[in-house]
Design goal:
It comes from Sphingopyxis terrae subsp. ummariensis. The protein is mainly α and 495 residues long. It has helices at 3-15, 18-24, 26-44, 82-109, 121-129, 134-151, 158-181, 188-196, 209-218, 225-234, 243-259, 305-315, 319-332, 347-363, 368-381, 390-399, 402-413, 419-430, 434-447, 452-466, 472-483, 489-493; strands at 114-117, 269-275, 282-288, 291-297, 341-343. It has a three-stranded mixed sheet, covered by helices on one side. Helix 11 (243-259) runs antiparallel to helix 15. It starts with a helix and ends with a helix.
Length: 495
């Protein structure tokens, strides 16, 4: 973009900040001023002395980081005025617009913070031309969040209120991330709560010892249990020459089962790539326009279980479907611009990773996964199907250890243990080889509290979808409903 055009774009963007919106919209400013004056008058008005009552114990509950919007004060007729509500929605749109610019500017300080963007090109051009400092971006996030508090009582539609709550959570994450990029460190649980909207409750590692003992019965022998399990799973390694046909077939199975439940855009597509030199095992890069690039890391040998896992997690009904739904339902249908950018460190990731992990079991319930792997995936991979069910029993048992990874991450990032200890504990409780434990620790170092989004996210999505023993059709409807609405962890926990 030429310099003059870039400056013009920045000037336009600056003119659309919330303070500018108020300057251009005196009616909204008047309403907010009237409401605040009424609140002050109510506080200052004399009150009758109430008769004394017996003292009673009061429990003060801790306030969450993200409280729900407060209702309008009693007697605030303006909250019911459709014209005022329309102005409040306009302000919400303006904050959403400024949020996108803020996140894109944040991405200029650390490009991996932006997972996807398919919004207006002018916003990206303006962001990279003259980005604000991290300190300025953090302050801007706080100001935008405060502006949402002002208009919250005047948003009467449930969709607007839910959108506002999600936008406030995303602004808190952006503020937190700006502080982290300046060098500030939060305790693991605090960081997770500020970035992803949920405070993890972690079990001590000793809570997983009984599961290790049960797994030891499935893989008897001498030596460390992690080495025995790793050697057993080595039998199910996919030869490099068979990776593409195996993954093509696995993703096709995942897509077919998803397509039977949800209508997807006719032009949706993805490109499958095999890469090296990454700290993750698989990644979905959403390009917009219903297209993804799915990458599989081949630094370490790839075992058979990863075929359906990655096919579902990165593809269908995981990240690819998640992003399709967001683009179709929130960006295109509702024109909610804030969803055209996906900051990696935000509550979106909690739902994205949780739904992607849970989607594996949703697509292949009960013994259906075993049947597909025996009848289709193993023959394509050139792997002899086992004579018994021990392979799948072992996979299920190991899944019960997933919470241990979060405890190890918390101890490592909070400084309670050093890296060699973190690697050794990952080997023991993850039942993986040292190279895989090193890769998992690399991931923790780079993405920090992001690790909660997998196990904890899956558990909360599962509990929400399966609550009350619903039918399979209802489970799919609940699952898909989550992907097409602004959803926070608190929404999953609500009864």
């Amino acid at each position: 973009m030429p310099r003059r055009s870039a400056l013009l774009a920045l000037a336009v963007l600056a003119g659309m900040t919330l303070s500018g919106c108020y300057a251009l919209d005196p009616e909204m400013r008047r309403v907010v001023a009237q409401r605040k004056a009424a609140e002050r008058a109510a506080k200052e008005a004399p009150t009758k002395q109430a008769p004394s009552e017996p003292a009673m114990a009061v429990t003060i509950l801790p306030q969450t980081v993200l409280p729900p919007p407060m209702p309008a004060p009693a007697g605030a007729d303006a909250a019911l005025d459709p014209a005022v509500a329309a102005v409040a929605r306009h302000t919400l749109d303006s904050v959403a617009h400024d949020y996108v610019g803020l996140v894109l500017e944040l991405g200029t300080h650390n490009k991996s913070d932006i997972d996807a963007y398919y919004g207006p090109k002018a916003l990206m051009a303006a962001a990279v031309t003259d980005p604000r400092s991290l300190a300025m971006l953090g302050e801007a996030a706080r100001q935008l969040s405060a502006s949402l508090d002002d208009v919250a009582p005047h948003l009467t539609a449930a969709a607007d209120q839910r959108r506002l709550r999600a936008l406030k959570a995303m602004l808190l994450a952006a503020e937190t991330r700006s502080e982290m990029l300046q060098g500030k460190r939060f305790a693991f649980a605090d960081e997770a709560e500020r970035l992803f909207g949920v405070r993890p409750t972690l079990e001590p590692l000793s809570a997983y010892d009984a599961t290790l003992a049960a797994i030891a019965q499935l893989v008897p022998g001498d030596g460390e249990l992690a080495d025995r399990v790793d050697a057993y799973f080595d039998r199910f390694t996919i030869p490099a020459a068979r990776l593409k046909p195996t993954f093509d077939a696995a993703i096709a199975q995942c897509r077919a089962r998803t397509a039977a439940q949800v209508m997807m855009p006719e032009d949706e597509s993805f490109d499958l790539q095999f890469v090296t030199g990454k700290s993750w095992s698989g990644y979905n890069f959403y390009m917009g326009g219903y297209r993804s690039i799915i990458q599989v890391n081949t630094d370490l040998p790839i075992r058979l279980a990863r075929a359906l896992d990655l096919g579902c997690h990165e593809g269908y009904p995981g990240h690819h479907l998640f992003n399709l739904q967001i683009e179709a339902k929130l960006v295109r249908d509702r024109n909610w611009i804030e969803y055209s950018v996906y900051p990696l460190y935000s509550p979106q990731s909690f739902l994205a990773e949780g739904s992607a992990n849970y989607g594996i079991d949703l697509a292949f319930p009960g013994d259906e996964r075993i049947a597909v792997e025996r009848g289709t995936i193993m023959p394509l991979a050139g792997i002899e199907p086992p004579a018994d069910e021990r392979y799948w029993q072992l996979l299920d048992a190991i899944k019960a250890l997933s919470g241990a990874r979060l405890t190890i991450a918390q101890q490592y990032l909070d400084g309670a243990i050093d890296r060699p200890t973190a690697v050794a504990l990952t080997q023991k409780y993850g039942l993986v080889s040292r190279p895989r434990a090193e890769q998992m620790t690399d991931f923790t170092e780079k993405y920090r509290s992001y690790v909660i989004n997998y196990g904890l996210g899956e558990a909360m999505v599962r509990d929400y979808v399966e609550r009350g023993a619903p039918s399979r059709d209802m489970m799919w409807r609940r699952f898909l409903g989550l992907l097409g609405e602004p959803t926070l962890p608190a929404d999953l926990a609500a009864q």
